């Protein structure tokens, strides 16, 4: 939930608590940190961007809210952008994969297969997206 509050000063050390929480969660197969913290360039109003790939979950919305609460407690902030990769559009997941840092990887083969398939789909999508933007807005390559 974005309230435009500053992250705790010790947010980098708190990330290990979030990593441990995700590693203990049996529904999480792999997880990434992305965004400005992953790039090592946090800004004053940065949030913590975390993406997770989950085992099948009956009530995904309730699970996501619960995970968000637990991550908020571990990180000491509610300035979290939590993305569930299983349901994220390729336009989002592809961009995450280009600028990610692996936090948890319980099934490396499955993660690598997901990354390969998603990036291939994303690069196809991006070509079409750039052509659309060029036609519609006169921007792009």
What does this structure look like?
With 141 residues, the protein is α+β, with helices and mostly antiparallel strands. It has one domain: Beta Polymerase, domain 2 (2-Layer Sandwich). It has five helices and four strands. The protein has helices at residues 11-24, 36-39, 60-75, 90-98, 108-137; strands at 28-34, 48-54, 80-84, 100-105. The chain has a four-stranded mixed sheet. Strand 2, helix 3 (60-75) and strand 3 (80-84) form a beta-alpha-beta unit. The longest helix is centred in the last third of the chain and has 30 residues, at 108-137. It is globular, with a radius of gyration of 16 Å. The model has no long low-confidence stretch (mean pLDDT 91).
Please identify, by name, the CATH architecture: 2-Layer Sandwich
Q: Mind summarizing the main beta sheet? A: 4 strands, mixed
Number of helices: 5
CATH homologous group name: Beta Polymerase, domain 2
Into how many domains do the coordinates divide?
1
Please give the CATH class: Alpha Beta
Give Rg in angstroms.
16 Å
The helix fraction, in percent, is 40-55%
Structural class: alpha+beta
Number of distinct beta strands = 4
Q: How much β-strand is present in the residues?
A: 15-25%
What's the mean pLDDT score?
91
Could you give the distance between the termini? 35 Å
Uncertain regions spanning at least 5 consecutive residues: none
CATH structural fold name: Beta Polymerase, domain 2
* SSE succession: HEHEHEHEH
What form results from the Cα inertia axes?
Answer: globular
Give me the side-by-side strand order of the main sheet. 3-2-1-4
